[in-house]
Design a protein that fits this description.
This protein is mainly alpha-helical and 194 residues long. The chain is built from six helices and no strands.
Length: 194
Amino acid sequence: MSVVEVAREAYREALPALSVSLVAGLLSGVVLGGMQDELRVVSGLLMLVPAFLATRGNVFGSFGARLATALHQGLIEPRVRGGDERLRSAVTAALVNALLVSVFAAVATYFVLTLLGLPHASLLTLVAIATIAGALSGAVLATAVVVVVFAGYRRGYNPDTIVGPVVTTTGDVFGLLFLLLAVRVVLALLGGGG
């Protein structure tokens, strides 16, 4: 294959995913804009948002890369089966990592805001929000990554090309939606601004 053919193939595979990513990124902006009340009530939430979203991409991007590598090496088949120990282990590791890093992002946010002397919600509030949003977005992202990587692979696409835009897009949209939901749940349970 020539350099031009390789480039053409890469763009053919990536352009649809990047286009969807662009539109979904705008949707994420709409969700964030709709969170103005929650951002005012939960001091420090705005600082948590980028850290939380970045961790979605980091954890599930590496999960997608592991799946793609396993497919390329023939270690797993591009189908979901309950008995596939490698796939089950990879999904479990991604979900556990997502929860741990969500809690870490909340704790880091709390301590940075404390050190800077800036107003912030309680540690319990920030951790509860991050944990709920992390669990929910993790479940959606794990499912999306498996479905997209396997479906793309079966259709002849390189999963390494499509997993990045899918993870960042899905992580941003569902991460923000579940942060909004988590804030509302935590405020209802704990009352006030935490």
